[in-house]
Amino acid sequence: MTPEDYDKLTKEEREAYDKAEREREAAEQAALPYSWKQELGDVSITVPVPNGTRSKNLDIVIAKKKLRVGLKGQEPIMEGELCKEVKLDDSTWTLVDQQFVNIYLEKVNKQQWWENVLTHHPKLDTTKIQPENSKLSDLDGETRGMVEKMMFDNQQKQMGKPTSDELKKMEALKKFQAAHPELDFSQAKVA
């Protein structure tokens, strides 16, 4: 269905179409020999392997645009070209309880959702992805400061009060006035 056709649907038809698409995508993803999830910055993949598997029995290759997971001497469980590039130095795998391989892939482009892991596997509609809400405590210091400033400024605007930048300018003007009492600031405007 084209975006134009989708836009012509009623709200109920859109909801039914979206529900059917989510069910189709879920069925396609469930049929894959692995499960995966993603955040904007990374992809996590879980590949079941025979119980009792040891790391020395695994054949795992993580390349910038390729991935292979399997057991030595056997057909790979999954193999192919990755949807997007990954950072090799920050991508890794771990064998868990001798029955799962957990693969962590660090995305090169941290601002883009992946449609699939391997290019030949079914695609997800990335326009419908709803990321989990993050907490301020999850953010690095600089980003957290920026978000808190934006939240403060938004609150101030809603109450008709000056923003943090306007408060700084007003404070600077007060200090300047105190240092120069001989000047007339009665017509001064803070912009």
From TrEMBL:
The keyword Cytoplasm applies. It comes from the Eukaryota. PANTHER family: NUCLEAR MIGRATION PROTEIN NUDC, NUCLEAR MOVEMENT PROTEIN NUDC. Residues 1-30 are annotated as: Disordered. Required for nuclear movement. May interact between microtubules and nuclei and/or may be involved in the generation of force used to move nuclei during interphase. Keywords: Cytoplasm. GO terms for biological process: protein folding. Its main location: cytoplasm. InterPro entries: CS_dom, HSP20-like_chaperone, NudC_fam. It holds the Pfam family CS. This is Nuclear movement protein nudC.
